[in-house]
Structures are given as structure tokens and as C-alpha cells.
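Input record (one chain):
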Amino acid sequence: MSTDTESLTVTVEEPAAWSRVLSIIVPAERVAKTRRAISRQIAERAKLPGFRKGKMPAGVLEQRFGPAIDQETLDRMIQEAYREALEREDLSPISEAEVDNVVYQPKEDLRFDVRFDIRPDPKIERVEGFTVKRPPTEIGDDDVDSVLERLRNEQGTWHPLPAGETPDYEDRVTVEITELDGSEGQEAEAEQFRFVIGEGQAIPDVEEAITTLEPGSEGEFRPKFPDDFPDESQRGKEQHLRIRLVEAHRKELPELDDEFASSVGEFESIGALRERIETDLKKDAEERAEASVRDQLVERIVEANPFDVPESMVDRYLRLMLTGGRDEKPTPEQEARFTEMKPQLRPQAERSLRRMMVVEKLGEREDLRITPEDVDARVEEMAEQYGREPGEVWIQLEKSGQLQSLENEIREDKVFDFLKSVNTVE
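The corresponding structure, as predicted from the sequence alone:
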């Protein structure tokens, strides 16, 4: 038990809402007591010629191990005092502590500062009276037709062009292209490429030239780079090329009939496939609309109750993103990627963290608790969706550590149900 002469003096400063600086003073008597204990431990372990173990004179011990004793004393006292100060002030850091301004002299008080971040406690006062718009969720025949065409394209088969035909857009070609140097009559080695005409993998003049050739034929062309070419130095520049069309294929698409429907899934007819596509598109549209409503509500709340996000939280969030959610020390490659991607990903990280803090704050404030019945109901929904028994789903969630994520989803749903009830969604 500490006596008055060993009690810490702790001063707390708040440079920002989420930042704390502890100025800690450890009494000289407490420092000296710890130093004596460390000296005894070293004396008991040290072995020097001419001295029996544990019998080294104090002067020799100081001469040989004095700096090491001081460093161990300093490290131990800072750690102990920091932990004690956190407990006394009821603080929970979310970042590594930065120790600064250390003053340590024998027979004097130890003084040091510790800077760290704590989890922000945003002051969210206004959450009502906002108006947000829900995007339309109507699904038309054109939307279904578009999906069917994509499925047809995926099921299509490539066939060689009929004799005497030249390729057209959406045909797949294999070409050999040789750069010709007209001034010296020299040419580079031919390079072979395969691509689909019209997908932008070659400049328009080259694609147009290819459409004049039959498989097996070649020609010389002078295509120009377009004015909007990404490499500005190449814009408008003319090339002298020999292009040989090695082969060309055209995709044959299946008929949209019952046989096609059965080939892409267990559908008895093309009508059943269309119905399933419409149902899935409707569900996706509703999910996107709900996500939009939630994003708008969070934006309105943050605009009305602005708060900053600690840099340490942003860094941790981004590192978790770049390590696939694994809370581990990043590799040098991951750290380099983090440094490179941070400016681009920072806005997304801040939005996600603000959303998380708004949800947590309102969940606590409105006492939106998660009950076992809530979790059971959600597990049953998942089991029905995947055609499995609820017990199996529960065991899988528990083994994979996803039950906490499921509870977070339920909490978020409750918070946004509350927000939609006190705001207007048009």
C-alpha cells in the first residue's frame, strides 16, 4: 500500500476532445525504493570474479551496473505510474502512449508526460427534423433484359468467322502488329495481341484497320493516337504499322428459351428465370436504397453535430483494411502500401468511423439493447435464407467469431429504425 510520500501527482490536460496528456510526478522516495529493489535483484543474479554470488559490495555494484539500474528503474517506474494514473483518472487509451519530457535525477522526483488518444465521446444533440430521400426501387423489363443479355453473353461460344468475312465490333481477334520505320526502312519485331474489338483495348484507328482485313491477310496502316489519349505526349502522333490478322472469332449467343434457363440454374422455364431475376434486382435495389437513406441520415447528423476523428483511429482503421481485418503488425510491404494509399482512403475511413460512433452513441443514449431473442430471430432468418438449421448457423457463427458482428448489425438496424421514426424519409 502506498503512503502519502509515495503517492503520485497527476495533472490531466485535454489538447483535443479525444486527446489527453498526463503530467505525472513520482515522489523521490518511491523511486529510490524501486531502485533499491532492482539493485538487490541484480546483486543476487550477478557473477563477477572474486565475489561470491549475492555478496558484491554496493560500490562495485554501482560502478559496474549503475547505468543499467537507473534505466531499469526509469522504465519500471514510468510503466507502473502510467498504469496507476490511467486507473485513477478512469481513462482507456486507444493509441500507443508517447512518453515525453522525462526528468530523472537521483534522489529527486521523477517527472514525465504521457500523451495518448481516448475514444471520442461525440456530443450528438440534434438527431430529429431531417428530411432525406429514398432512391427509387422500381424494376422494369429493360433491367431484366439487361441481366438476361449478360447471362447470354457469359454462355456464348466463340466460332471462327465464315470464309471471306472481315471482323466487326464485338468480334475477338488475334493480330500481329509490327512497327515500321519509314525513314530507314527498318522494322521492329512483330508483337501479337488478342482482344475484342470495341472494348477499348486498342486505339480506334487500329481497330478500324483490323475490320478491313480477312483472317490470314495483312496490310500497312498509318493510325493516329486520339486527341484524348491518356499519354499526352502521344496525342495526335502518327504510327506506321503492319497489321496481320491471324484469326478472328465471333460469339454465338444461345436462344432465350427454356433450355437456356435450365442451363444457368434450376429453372423450368424462361419465365421462371425472369421472375427470379426481377426478384433479385428488386432486393438489390431496396438494399441500395436503404443504404442511401442511412448514409444521408448520418451525414445530416454529423453536419448538425460536427466532431473530429482521432488520427490514431483513422490509422488503425486503414491498417485493418489493408491487412484484411487482421489486427497484427503490418509487413514492410503493407506499411508502404498504407503510406501510399492513406491520402486516398482517409475520407472513406473517416466516414465509416463517424458512422460507427454515431450508431454506438445513439444505441447507448436511446437504450437500444440487443436481447437474446433479437439474435435468435436473426439467426433463424439466416438459416431460412441458406436452407440450413438454425443450430448449425449458430455454431458456425460462434466458431468463426462472427456473433459479435451479427450483434453489431442488429444494433445498427435498431438505431436506424429509431432515426427513421423521428425524421422524414421521402
